[in-house]
Amino acid sequence: MHIETDLKLDFRDVLIRPKRSVLTSRSEAQITRTFRFRHATTGWTGLPLIASNMDTIGTFQMAASLSQSQALVALHKYYSASDLIEFFGSEASRYAFFTIGTSSDDWQKLVQVKRQVAVPMINIDVANGYTQQFLDAVVKLRDENPQAIIMAGTVVTAEMTEALIIAGADIIRVGIGSGSVCTTRDLTGVGFPQLSAVIECADAAHGLKGHVCSDGGCVVPGDIVKAIGGGADFVMLGSMLAGHAECAGEIVHESVDGRQVQKMVFYGMSSETAMNKHHGGVAEYRAAEGKTVTVPYKGEVKDTINAISGGLRSAMTYIGAEHLKEVTKRTTFIMVNAQRNTVYG
Ligand code: 5GP
C-alpha cells in the first residue's frame, strides 16, 4: 500500500487569477482553435466543446445545433447503421464523432457505415480505460482507420495517457468518477479529482503531441475555462447540455411549491435506466454505476452554448489570452476555500 500526499484538486478548489491584458473587448477573444493531431492525417478547426455520447445528449439533433457554433458531438452508439449512413453523408458530420465500444457489433456497424460514407472522427468509449483489451482495441482501430481522428478513454493518469497515444489515439478522454450522474466513486472508491487529472494527463499528452479532452464534472461555464486553463484541449459535457430541446430525454411534469414545472429525465450510461433500455436489465455480476435524475427543461441548446462562449470570451479578456491556445499559458490557479458569495443562494 502507498499513499500520495500531495493534494489533488477539483474545479471548485481553485479560481483563476486575473492578469493585465491588452484585449479591449470580448469580441477580440478567439474561441475557435485549429488542431493538428499526432496520428490523424487531417486537422480540425472549431469550438472544442463535445456533447457527451450519452444516449440523451449525443443525438443527431444536438449535432445539427452544435455544428452551427462549430462545436462537436460524440454521437451515442445506439443509432442504426442506416441512420448513421444518412447522418455521415450530411454537413454536420464534420462536427461529430462516431462512437464505438469494444463489442463486435459496434465494430461491424462502423465497417458497414464506412462502406458507404466517410467517418473522419471516431470515439472509442469504455468506462475503464486501464485494460490491456482496451489498448489492443485502440491499436486495431488505428490500423483500420489510419486517417481518422481517434479519441479514446477514459483514464486519469499520465502513464495510461501515454500508452493510449502510443497505441494510436489522438485525443485522450480524461475523467473517472467526476460525472454528474456517476456513482463510481461511491460504489468503488476509485477516482481522481478532475482538475488535477487534466493537468497531469495534459502534460503527458502534450509531450507526445497528443491532446486531451476533459470529460465530466463541469457544472458552470467557469469550470470549462478552468479545464482549458489546466491544459484540456477539448471539454466534454453531459449535464450542462441536459434538459434541452435537442436531447432525447423524456419530458415529465413535477410539482414544485404547488406549481407544475417541466423537467427532463437524464441518466448515467451505466445507470439502471440505461441498462434496462439497452441491455435488457442490469447483469448479475455488475452493479449500476450511474443514477437517474430529472433536470429543469432549458429550451434550445444554442442559448446555453452562447452563455458558455460568453463566459469563455470574458475569461480570456480577464487573463489576457487572445487565442484559446494561450489560455493555459496565461492561467495561474489560486487555491481557495470558497468560490462565491452565497447570500442569495
Ligand atoms: P457531466 O458533464 O454530466 O458531469 O459528465 C458527463 C460524463 O459522465 C460522460 O461524458 C461520461 O464520461 C460520464 N458518465 C456518463 N454516464 C455515466 C455513468 O452511468 N457512470 C459513470 N461512472 N460515468 C458516467
UniProtKB/TrEMBL annotation:
Similarity annotation: Belongs to the IMPDH/GMPR family. GuaC type 1 subfamily.
Name recorded for this polypeptide: GMP reductase
Entry keyword set: Metal-binding, NADP, Oxidoreductase, Potassium
Residues bound to K(+): G177, G179
Catalytic residues as annotated in Swiss-Prot or TrEMBL: C182 (thioimidate intermediate)
UniProt-annotated binding residues for NADP(+): 212-235
EC number(s) per entry: 1.7.1.7
MF-aspect GO terms: GMP reductase activity; metal ion binding
Annotated function: Catalyzes the irreversible NADPH-dependent deamination of GMP to IMP. It functions in the conversion of nucleobase, nucleoside and nucleotide derivatives of G to A nucleotides, and in maintaining the intracellular balance of A and G nucleotides.
InterPro entries in alphabetical order: Aldolase_TIM, GMP_reductase, GMPR, IMP_DH/GMP_Rdtase_CS, IMP_DH_GMPRt
Subunit structure: Homotetramer.
